[in-house]
């Protein structure tokens, strides 16, 4: 299938029908796109970015090359450090969101005032300031056609074996996460079992250990050497049972002081109770980039620790994507909410290459929760 648009001249496809008679093997196609495969591999396996979005990143970068903004962009990135590749991929993710979601593009451009230096500084530098957010928004439909074409004609064919390997690793990672969760549950139950064992040990009578140390009659009578050595040792002294001495009486004032202390502690605990809404974070997802509850939980647990009490995703139909969620923090980590949303009450995270906007949750008085 030929692609005739003058905006996207490609050396891989031509209007000459004779080229379609040439058969290219899978290995030859992989070899021809070795640089693209190398960059895709680093995005997925080294930088741990989402495979689908990484494919879109490569497809977008190929469009940038075809438009003439940066002829050897992919080759340059392959020879660059991971930190630059990751930053460029995140910037491309913003551009992809603008292409696929017109509402997002209008909202984004309105709030950022086309500030390319802040939003896409690396892409702007790599293209000598020719690629801008305004340009992407203005020609979004044409660029989107080029991205879709590269996804179908290049990425899906050049990365097929890498997809298979990546999906297998994702399945292994999910299984590993399940095992870790089970181990955490077992570990959380261990302290209670330890306390039970300790209490049993404290209740064991003192005479039990003495009986364990007394040699059995049968073992002593097995030979003279054992008996003689036993007799030559220090004679056994059987002491009379010690008289039980009652514990000294506790002063009534001391009892009263203890009760007062407990009452104050309980009062302090009651005052420190934070309502769930006051320790809830509201998360917004980009349309077209579905994020699961487990991805959210793993990301924030890695970044902030075991702070999550519950995650409530938007209720949608089976074939629809949740666009928002509520994340409730544990009571003892309520103060972490300021760290997550920042003093500006908004923040942005990248989860597996997908953008997530967060802010503090404010419950409407008459509206129902998610």
Q: In DSSP terms, counting alpha (H) and pi (I) runs of 4 or more, how many helices?
A: 17
Q: In sequence order, what are the helices and strands, one letter per element?
A: HHHHHHHHHHHHHHHEHEEHEE
Q: Biggest sheet: strands, sense, closure?
A: 5 strands, antiparallel
Look at the helices and sheets and give the structural class.
Answer: alpha+beta
Looking at the structure, what is the overall shape? globular
Which band does the percent of strand residues land in?
Answer: 5-15%
Q: Report how far apart the termini are.
A: 47 Å
Helical residues, percent? 55-70%
Q: Low-confidence spans: pLDDT under 50, at least 5 residues?
A: 1-15, 204-234, 236-245, 366-370
Radius of gyration: 34 Å
Q: Write down how many β-strands occur, each being a DSSP E stretch of 2 or more residues.
A: 5
Spatial strand order of the main sheet: 2-3-1-5-4
Mean pLDDT level: 76
Protein name: RRM domain-containing protein
């Amino acid at each position: 299938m030929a692609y005739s648009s003058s905006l996207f001249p490609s050396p891989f496809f031509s209007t000459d029908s004779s080229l379609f008679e040439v058969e290219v093997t899978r290995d030859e196609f992989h070899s021809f796109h070795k640089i693209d495969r190398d960059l895709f591999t680093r995005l997925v396996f080294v930088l741990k970015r989402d495979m689908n979005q990484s494919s879109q990143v490569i497809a977008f970068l190929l469009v940038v090359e075809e438009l003439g903004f940066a002829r050897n962009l992919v080759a340059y990135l392959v020879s660059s450090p991971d930190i630059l590749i990751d930053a460029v991929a995140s910037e491309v993710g913003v551009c992809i969101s603008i292409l696929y979601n017109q509402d997002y593009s209008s909202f984004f451009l309105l709030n950022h005032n086309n500030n390319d230096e802040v939003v896409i500084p690396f892409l702007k530098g790599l293209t000598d300031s020719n690629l801008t957010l305004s340009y992407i928004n203005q020609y979004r439909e044409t660029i989107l056609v080029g991205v879709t074409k590269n996804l179908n004609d290049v990425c899906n064919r050049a990365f097929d074996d890498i997809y298979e390997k990546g999906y297998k690793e994702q399945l292994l990672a999910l299984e590993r996460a399940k095992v870790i969760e089970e181990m955490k549950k077992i570990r959380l139950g261990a302290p209670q079992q330890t306390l039970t064992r300790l209490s049993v040990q404290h209740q064991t009578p003192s005479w039990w250990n003495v009986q364990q140390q007394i040699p059995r009659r049968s073992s002593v009578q097995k030979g003279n050497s054992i008996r003689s050595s036993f007799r030559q040792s220090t004679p056994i002294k059987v002491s009379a049972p010690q008289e039980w001495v009652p514990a000294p009486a506790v002063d009534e004032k001391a009892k009263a002081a203890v009760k007062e202390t407990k009452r104050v502690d309980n009062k302090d605990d009651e005052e420190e109770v934070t309502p769930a809404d006051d320790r809830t974070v509201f998360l917004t997802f980009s349309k077209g980039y579905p994020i699961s509850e487990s991805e959210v939980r793993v990301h924030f647990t890695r970044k902030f620790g075991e702070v999550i009490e519950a995650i409530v995703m938007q209720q949608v139909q089976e074939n629809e994507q949740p666009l928002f969620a509520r994340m409730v923090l544990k009571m003892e980590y309520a103060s972490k909410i300021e760290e997550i949303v920042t003093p500006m009450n908004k923040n942005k995270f990248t989860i597996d290459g997908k953008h997530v906007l967060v802010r503090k949750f404010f419950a409407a008085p008459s509206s129902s929760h998610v």
